[in-house]
Design a protein that fits this description.
- It is built from nine helices and ten strands.
- By secondary structure, the protein is an alpha/beta fold.
- The strands form two sheets. It has a seven-stranded mixed beta sheet with strand order 3-2-1-4-5-10-7, sandwiched between helices.
- Helix 5 links the parallel strand 4 and strand 5.
- The longest helix has 16 residues.
- The chain is globular.
- The structure holds S-adenosylmethionine.
- The site of S-adenosylmethionine (SAM) has 21 residues, from helix 1 and strand 2.
Amino acid sequence: MEFQNEIGLIQRKMAASVAGSSRRLEILNVLDIQSGQQVLDIGCGGGHLLEELAKAVGPKGKAIGLDTSEDQLKQAKGRCALYDNAFTLLGFANKINLESNSCDAVASAQTFEYIEDVDGSIEEVTRILKPSSIFVNISILWDYYKFYGADDNLNNLIQDTFKAHCFHQMLPTTLSGRLKKFGFKQLKHKPLPMFITTTDDNSPAKYAAEVMAQFALQQGVSKDKVNEWQNQLKLAEDTGHFAYTNLPILTYGYLS
Ligand SMILES: C[S@@+](CC[C@H](N)C(=O)[O-])C[C@H]1O[C@@H](n2cnc3c(N)ncnc32)[C@H](O)[C@@H]1O
């Protein structure tokens, strides 16, 4: 999936919602950043985490946001305009334009599942990280990213179509094995489950449904069917049988 235009905008609204702020807090808690450090965010999107990293490393440190999308990086630059120590980098995670042994920490949120070459990207993380430094990742178990309340057939059509939106549906199930292979130790996981029954403006369910609807249209599902799905979810919410579940997994480890 390309994070440009409408989908990029919805993604940034999701990042600005409570779902985004709560996972950034989880990442910051495990990173334990010290002033003066150099920290990289892979797949920085609109720069919400980048801004927090810039604050945490302080004026003598450096927070860098890497992304493949110029649209997202433009937004990230705007968001971090007040911070001289925040930088953006256009490029792919498996070929990062940074020196070897230059980063004190690498973070990434909901990005590695979109990267076809996950192992090459982990290897690149090991190249740029200093020894004993931390890599922290959040990826979603997409099999648990579900809506409830619409007609089963229609719901399954939209959800099955969405499976094509990323390369790795269940990345957290293989991530620690992959990290071990590249020399990471003290690996830990923390599930960050969501169960949501409303679609107000601070609700990740609202933006998740919008992204799924946009993607279904891009994949050729008819506008009538997509509108019908959205209407059924709205009716379910109004009548008290709507739910959205999501199971992001935070994984972290230290390079040996
Ligand atoms: C779902 S968004 C997450 C953005 C941000 N981390 C957040 O949590 O709000 C995924 C981001 O990863 C970027 N991305 C996808 N493939 C990438 C790759 N191979 N290298 C770097 N960034 C990538 C996309 O352009 C997009 O901005």
